[in-house]
3-phosphoglycerate dehydrogenase
Amino acid sequence: MKVLANDGISKSGILALEKGGFEVITTKVAQEQVANFVNENNVDVVLVRSATKVRKDIIDACPGLKIIGRGGVGMDNIDVDYAKSKGIHVINTPASSSESVAELVFGHLFSGVRFLHDSNRNMPLEGDSNFDGLKKAYANGTELRGKTLGIVGIGRIGQATAKMALGLGMKVIAADSFIPQVNVKVEFFDGQSITTTIVSQSLESLFKEADFITLHVPAQDGYIIGEKELAIMKDGVGIVNCARGGVIDEVALVKALDSGKVAFAGLDVFESEPKPEMAILMHTKISLTPHIGAATGEAQDRIGTELASQIITLLS
């Protein structure tokens, strides 16, 4: 049987699939050619990340397709229900990238509170001629310890983020309409651990209470954070989105950054991805990454081997 890993797969995933008797194709096929390629090469399994979309047209055009797999959490680039109605298995790897995404959240948080994103832009330009000026410009940093982190969506990635926040000595609050409460276990290198219970509260109360807000939700029909929500937040709040583009109104966010209502934002995903707006890309108060939340070697290894395990179980 053949597997097309159109957006790539780790070496460990390839080896696991080959050991299970599968042929793995890693050729990058253009979106409009995916259906033809699948049919011409008798592909049984298509694996994607966030780039390739598997919509109704491809599902209808590929009657031999047995599995569609998503390396990661979000399934918004796959017509999941329609595929299942056609007897196609749809799989993903919700647990594999949690720690990697959570660490990137804190990369953005540390960058925001210590102006790292902006100082890294300006030090090469002015570091030798305006060192004291830059030192003064970036002198009013903030510690994360003792502050309140509001987590919108306390699923696997939200929980991984909560663990890191607790380890830093932050207060953690959460809002999740599907998870009323969760026990979060923080494990240490020597085998010891502590467990704390986080009880979900209303979004409105979270927005009012949090010093920093991080989003961990799937794609939405509308904004979770817009002009109204920004208005009730604390002055000087920091906002991080490593979830999905389109959950924050970017026009309202820029306005709030310009006014000082929001101190900084950290964005890994964007409304108009893969062509983010220049007002976002050029803003000095936004820490930017190009949708790399799960892009660590460790996460990709876990994703590859987990996908392989599911495929082998389903088709063997």
About this structure: The radius of gyration is 21 Å. The domain at 2-94+297-315 is CATH 3.40.50.720 (Rossmann fold). The first helix runs from residue 11 to 19.
